[in-house]
From TrEMBL:
<dbReference type="InterPro" id="IPR056845">
    <property type="entry name" value="LRR_Zer-1"/>
</dbReference>
<keyword id="KW-0833">Ubl conjugation pathway</keyword>
<dbReference type="Pfam" id="PF22964">
    <property type="entry name" value="ZER1-like_2nd"/>
</dbReference>
<keyword id="KW-0677">Repeat</keyword>
<dbReference type="InterPro" id="IPR000225">
    <property type="entry name" value="Armadillo"/>
</dbReference>
<comment type="similarity">
    <text>Belongs to the zyg-11 family.</text>
</comment>
<protein>
    <recommendedName>
        <fullName>Protein zer-1 homolog</fullName>
    </recommendedName>
</protein>
<dbReference type="InterPro" id="IPR055142">
    <property type="entry name" value="ZER1-like_C"/>
</dbReference>
<dbReference type="InterPro" id="IPR011989">
    <property type="entry name" value="ARM-like"/>
</dbReference>
<dbReference type="GO" id="GO:0031462">
    <property type="term" value="C:Cul2-RING ubiquitin ligase complex"/>
</dbReference>
<keyword id="KW-0433">Leucine-rich repeat</keyword>
<dbReference type="InterPro" id="IPR016024">
    <property type="entry name" value="ARM-type_fold"/>
</dbReference>
<dbReference type="Pfam" id="PF25013">
    <property type="entry name" value="LRR_Zer-1"/>
</dbReference>
<dbReference type="InterPro" id="IPR051341">
    <property type="entry name" value="Zyg-11_UBL_adapter"/>
</dbReference>
<feature type="domain" description="Protein zer-1 homolog-like C-terminal">
    <location>
        <begin position="409"/>
        <end position="760"/>
    </location>
</feature>
<dbReference type="InterPro" id="IPR032675">
    <property type="entry name" value="LRR_dom_sf"/>
</dbReference>
<feature type="domain" description="Zer-1-like leucine-rich repeats region">
    <location>
        <begin position="202"/>
        <end position="342"/>
    </location>
</feature>
């Protein structure tokens, strides 16, 4: 059988790493002084393992809400005699100054800090500890790292040091003493988002050996200093840097450049116009170029061939056929060409193997891939375009699209715009049209990021998108591996303060599906989370609004499901005024057939619990159940369920019937009349997982009408659905109990006749299966 999309298993290294991190105290650590986590003395971890442990830990902290963070984790890597770190990647605000200090003795080769706004100038001092070994450094978006923490009061006590550690960096206390003196091995440097107060030229001057430099968003009042690397620099990123003729003239002097990025976020924010002359100069002077990004620039019309000429022939990547005049001078096609948010992405002949743009699915996916990590503002727009493709057209690169959207949602868990567009795209990428091509593992990854979004954002659009996406999965089967988590999130959505009707409707539907056809221990666990009370609160609110809508009906249906064979949940229903709400709903909505069926089905579950039946044995409730025996709502379902409730109550015997009205014999007569009025071949809107509550009513003489109801129920179900219910009847010993009915003198003749017919029909059905 062919593998489905995204079905490649994790490596043993990946699995072992995750296991160790989730079980640190059982694998390589012990609990030290003041509960501090300490590495066992007999352990030495080489760099391959240390790097994997360190970076996987940060990924789990960032993407897995069930993963437990360890305050002293970074301290495990403080001693290079037992741990060897070489490549570290840290993202978002989890990193603090003291965490970086904990690993200062390591000989780091790569250190990537991205959007680590918890770091201050104190970490610049720590950086100097790595100056002799560091080859690659990223400080992208670390906006506070060039500022000192607010001054501590007077003496430097232990407490004040802690306050300093946790306090925000002061935007006025610029660190002026740091530079890259001594970082002689540094070759790759990302300084995107460098504060305006920091002079890039002075900061970078000591770095003579750079081969890759990213100055995204950095203002460059002087540009000539870039020429100090003209013989070495292979990659230069100037994203969102204001271009000028001076800067362009400087860039084209960097003759060894292989990658040049002079793109912008949007054409609207640009005053600079990309002319044919400028593009020609870039192509002619930078002869080693294999990657160029000019996204977001205003392009003058004289850059492209006439429309008629452009439309001729099949699309080609050969430079000589290029629809963009300056690129006709390329000696070979570019490996990458960024044309996102430009008019050039729409031309036919583009001399590049990979192009970003918005013309087609391939360009859009390339844009998401290229811009997700450092340019969420562009990734957001590209994902929105992918959403339109999946919604209106057809996504032909499903696996790639899903993996890119998942990666974006993981990378930017705290970016609302990414979460909104990403969750919307996932809804269409996981629907029925694409489902058969997706592996279990890939769909589980989708569920993980959807639940992350639901946890992080209470905003209506994100919640709606996430709930709708979950509806694309087989419930409860595909959600069972996150069963408790998804239920908790849905119950939170359904808190009374929330008023969005569409989200309520979807969330209640999901809750109902999640408690249908699951084991009792799952139902009990969800009951303890407050499921019963939440549903009853919704019903109470709908009653106040005098509205019987899908939320009302789904809420009763969910209560019916969650109380099935779970006495504790039935008890919760009674404790939370469930019977009062039942009576109010009957009175307020006398003609709502499905509502009545759901409510009576639920009360049938309550009546199956012997200890709770006395709470149903009141004149008011018995009168209501007796009256509902005459109901024709939803076929026979309401009458059948009302009779079931009374059958269990009658089974407790005449001695518990302490009321004068209604009389027990009169109610039993009504039950006989109701059962005889039902069509035994009726198709049913009910699903039994077990016959045990029915079977217990067979071998007894206390209540012949209860015995007859049970016999009729089995006869109907086995006759209409033999393939489903014959095996269940055998499994639960029903044949023996039916034979017992024939032996009992107390059994009514019509009950015996039906039992005999059932045994004959059962034998026939069994031979046909």
């Amino acid at each position: 059988m062919a593998a489905k999309a995204g079905d490649n298993p994790d490596s043993l290294m990946t699995l072992a790493t995750a296991f160790c991190l989730r079980n640190l105290r059982k694998t390589m650590c012990y609990q030290g002084y003041r509960n501090k986590l300490c590495l066992r003395s007999d352990i030495f971890l080489p760099s391959e393992i240390c790097d994997k442990l360190f970076n996987t830990y940060m990924e789990l902290v960032h993407t897995d809400s069930n993963f437990e963070r360890q305050e002293s984790f970074f301290q495990l890597f403080s001693d290079p005699r037992s741990t060897r770190l070489t490549r570290v990647q840290l993202r978002e605000d989890f990193m603090r100054d003291r965490d970086l200090e904990a690993i200062r003795k390591q000989d780091l080769i790569e250190l990537h800090l991205t959007y680590c706004n918890g770091l201050s100038a104190r970490s610049l001092k720590t950086l100097t500890c790595f100056r002799e070994t560091l080859v690659s450094l990223c400080l992208f978006g670390c906006s506070h790292i060039f500022y000192r923490k607010g001054a501590a009061p007077l003496a430097s006590t232990e407490d004040s040091e802690e306050d300093e550690e946790e306090g925000p960096a002061s935007r006025h206390a610029l660190e002026r003493d740091f530079n890259f003196q001594g970082f002689n091995r540094l070759r790759l440097l990302k300084l995107g988002g460098l504060p305006e107060e920091v002079d890039a030229e002075t900061l970078l001057k000591p770095l003579q050996a750079l081969t890759s430099l990213d100055l995204s968003g950095v203002q460059l009042p002087r540009t000539a200093f870039l020429t100090q690397w003209k013989d070495r620099l292979a990659s230069l990123v100037l994203y969102n840097v204001d271009l000028s003729e001076e800067l362009v003239n400087t860039v084209v002097e960097l003759g060894n450049l292989r990658h040049l990025d002079i793109s912008r976020e949007s054409r609207r924010a640009s005053k600079f116009k990309m002319t044919r002359k400028i593009l020609t100069a870039i192509v002619q002077r930078l002869v080693n170029l294999v990657s160029l990004d000019i996204s977001g620039h205003i392009m003058l019309d004289n850059c492209t061939v006439p429309h008629l000429e452009d439309a001729m022939g099949r699309p080609s990547i050969e430079p000589c056929k290029s629809s963009i005049y300056p690129f006709q001078e390329l000696k070979r096609p570019l490996q990458f060409l960024g044309l996102y948010d430009t008019t050039l992405c729409n031309v036919t002949h583009i001399p590049a193997y990979k192009v970003t743009g918005s013309k087609n699915e391939d360009q859009v996916l390339n844009a998401i891939e290229a811009y997700t990590e450092f340019r969420p503002e562009l990734a957001h727009r590209a994902i929105n375009q992918l959403f339109d493709i999946a919604r209106i057209q057809h996504c032909s690169q499903l696996l790639r699209a899903l993996q890119l959207v998942i990666a974006a949602l993981k990378c930017h868990k705290y970016d609302k715009s990414i979460q909104v567009t990403g969750s919307a795209a996932l809804f269409y990428l996981t629907n029925t049209e694409y489902r058969s091509d997706q592996s279990v593992r890939l769909r589980r990854e989708v569920i993980h990021v959807v639940l992350n979004g639901m946890e992080q954002y209470q905003e209506v659009t994100v919640q709606r998108n996430c709930c709708l996406t979950l509806c694309n999965f087989s419930i409860p089967e595909e959600l069972e591996f996150q069963y408790s988590r998804v239920n908790l999130l849905l119950l939170k959505i359904l808190e009374p303060a929330r008023q969005d009707e569409s989200i309520q409707r979807i969330a209640v539907h999901l809750c109902n599906a999640l408690v249908c056809q699951v084991d009792n221990h799952h139902k009990e666990a969800v009951g303890r989370m407050g499921f019963v009370k939440t549903m009853l609160n919704l019903i109470q609110k709908k009653l106040q609004d005098r509205m019987c809508d899908q939320v009302m009906e789904f809420s009763w249906s969910a209560l019916w499901n969650i109380t099935d064979e779970t006495p504790d949940n039935c008890q919760m229903f009674l404790n939370c005024r469930g019977m009062s709400l039942f009576l109010e709903c009957l009175e307020e909505f006398p003609d709502k057939q499905e509502l009545h069926r759901n409510m009576l089905g639920l009360l049938g579950n309550v009546a199956e619990v012997k200890a709770l039946r006395p709470q149903l044995l009141t004149p008011q409730f018995i009168t209501v159940f007796s009256n509902l025996l005459d109901s024709k709502a939803d076929g026979i379902e309401v009458s059948y369920n009302a009779c079931g409730v009374l059958s269990h109550i009658m089974f407790d015997g005449p001695e518990v019937w302490s009321m004068e009205e209604p009389r027990r014999d009169m109610v039993m007569d009504k039950m006989w009349d109701a059962i005889q009025s039902w069509d035994v071949s009726s198709r049913r809107n009910i699903n039994y997982r077990s016959f045990e509550p029915i079977l217990r009513l067979l071998p007894q003489g206390i209540s012949p009408v209860s015995q007859h109801w049970a016999t009729w129920a089995l006869f109907n179900l086995v006759s209409v659905y033999p393939s489903k219910y014959c095996p269940l009847l055998i499994k639960e010993g029903g044949i023996t109990l039916l034979e017992k009915v024939l032996e009992l003198d107390s059994s009514q003749e019509e009950t015996k006749d039906m039992a005999s017919l059932l045994l004959m029909k059962f034998g026939f059905c069994l031979s046909c299966l």
